[in-house]
Amino acid sequence: MKKLFCTICFVLVFFETLYGAQPVWDYEENLVLKKDEIYKKSFQIAGLQKELKFYWTLYKNYGLVVNLNYDKFPYQFILYTDYARKSFKLPISRAGDIRDIEVFLSFIKYDYESKEASLWLGVLYPQKIKSGS
Fold it and tell me: pLDDT tens digit string along 21-31?
């Protein structure tokens, strides 16, 4: 019985480390932005040039209001430093046999003295999905 329990625990730990691994980011950058300072980044997707730009407008009640524009489509959201509300995920392309290109924007901290927000930007580019045959 003890041997069975140890085997089950080992299998659970093995699968958790296998599937719970952190992603390997294709692009990442730490940013420090002042209020209304615009950050721009361009992407080449299927031969088309796409632009991502964002800025923050307000820090109130521990929340950072962010305006983001991707491919002329506007988004507005609030980021906090707690785990559940710290990041915004934006899938920016969809194509048949590749996974989405995903952009993640995370709020790290707000500096009251300099009135600057620290953000992290991460991008996962598409990878071919392996077929079963």
Answer: 567 788 899 99
Mean pLDDT of the chain: 82
Radius of gyration of the chain (CA): 19
Secondary structure, 3-state, 104-131:
EEEEEEEECCCCEEEEEEEEECCCECCC
| Residue whose token pair is 């407008």 | 57
Which residue from 57, 42, 24 is spatially nearest to 92, judged by alpha carbons? Answer: 42
Residue 130 confidence (pLDDT) above 50: no
Residue with tokens 């290109």: 101
Q: What is the pTM of this model?
A: 0.75
Residue type at 51 in one-letter notation: E
The rounded Cα 124 to chain-centroid distance in angstroms is: 8
Q: Which tokens go with 126?
A: 């598409």
- Nearest residue to 89 (alpha-carbon basis) of 66, 111, 109, 110: 66
- The per-residue pLDDT for range 82-92, each reduced to its tens digit, is 988 999 999 87
Instruction: Map out the domains of the chain with their CATH numbers.
Output: 23-124 (2.60.98)
